[in-house]
Amino acid sequence: MTETPRNGRNAVPLDELDRRILAVLQQDNRLSFAELAERVASSAASCVRRVRRLREEGVILADIALVDPGRAGKSLTAVVNIELEAERLDLVDAFKREMRAAPEVNQCYMVTGDADFVVMVTVEDIAAFEAFTRDRLYANPNIRKFRSMIMLDRVKFEPRVAI
Amino acid sequence: MTETPRNGRNAVPLDELDRRILAVLQQDNRLSFAELAERVASSAASCVRRVRRLREEGVILADIALVDPGRAGKSLTAVVNIELEAERLDLVDAFKREMRAAPEVNQCYMVTGDADFVVMVTVEDIAAFEAFTRDRLYANPNIRKFRSMIMLDRVKFEPRVAI
DNA sequence: CGTGAAATTAGTTGACC
DNA sequence: GGTCAACTAATTTCACG
C-alpha cells in the first residue's frame, strides 16, 4: 500500500522513496547526493538515478533560489481577482499573454467561480501598485472589473507540493 | 502570545550586479559559479562572495526544487477566500497556525479587502478538496464563510521577484 | 574587484553483487 | 537496488595585483 499511482492526467507514478526525495529537495536542493541519501535512508547512487529521472520526466520543473520580496525591495504583494468583459477565447488568450509578459505578476490562475482570473502581484510600494492597476488593469478594455486585496501578512509561502 | 508579523523587514541595498545574480538564480540555482559569472558578466570569485552574502542576509531565503503538482499526482489547485467570524487577534493567530500546519495549504496570505485570508490549496482531486473543506474549513468555527475558486489553468507560476 | 593555483568536496560513470 | 573505485568537475580558500 505504499504505492499510490495517482491519475492526474500526466501524473508520473512515484514510490515512497521518490516522495521522500521530492520532499527533501523541495526544501533544499543544494544537498550533496550523499546527504540526500542519508535523509531519505537510501544510497547516493539511487538518489542520483532517481533525481535525474524526476528531472527528465518533468516532475521536478526547475531548481531555483527563493528570494524574499521585502528584502529585495518589493514590500507590497496583492491578490487581484479579475473578471473579463466576455468569456471569449481570444480575449482570454490575450489576457493570459499580458499576464505572462508582466514582470510584476508572479502568479496568474484562470479559475472557476467569482472571478475569471486570480493574479498575484509583487511590487515596491503602493505607488507602484497604483501604477500597475493603471497601466495593466484600468488600461485594459478586456477587464470588466477587478478587486484588489493587499497582503498584510505572508502567513505561509511554500511553493511545494505535499506528497 | 501574538505572532510577529513578517513584513516590515528592512530591504537590503542591492546593486546592479546583485540584481542580475538574483535574476539568474531565481531561474536556475544549479549553475556553477563559472557559468553564473558568465551570465552576469562578472567573475566567479565575485559571484561566490555575493551569493554567500545574499544568503546570509536573507535576500535568498532558500534554494529549492520546484515540483509540478500535476506530475506529482496533485491535479487540483484552488484559491479560497476566507472570512473569519471576528477580527479577534486570538482567532486570527489560531487560524494562521492551522494553515501553517495544513500540508495541503501551499500559500496563505492575510489580506485587506473582501476577504480576511487568501489560501492556495493543492490536492489530488475534487474529492480530496471536498475533504479539505470539510475537515479544515466547515469544521472550523472561526470561519464565517469561504469562497472557493478552482484553478482551470496555471497561466503563470513564477515564485520569483522581478528585480 | 579580479586572477590564478592548490586543496577539498561533489558529481559522474561503469563494473559488479 | 546497493557498493566501490576512478575520473571529472565544482567549490573553497588563499595569496596577490
From TrEMBL, chains A, B:
**Whose protein is this, by species?**
Aminobacter aminovorans
What molecular functions are annotated in GO for this chain?
Answer: sequence-specific DNA binding
Task: Please provide the Gene Ontology terms (biological process) for this protein.
Answer: response to amino acid
Q: Which residues form a coiled coil?
A: none
Annotated SMART domains:
HTH_ASNC
Its domain of life reads: Bacteria
A single GO cellular-component term from the record reads: cytosol
> Any idea which UniProt keywords this protein has?
DNA-binding, Transcription, Transcription regulation
Domain HTH asnC-type span(s) in chain numbering: 14-75
Is Transcription found in the keyword set?
Answer: yes
Would you tell me the protein name for this molecule? Answer: Leucine-responsive regulatory protein
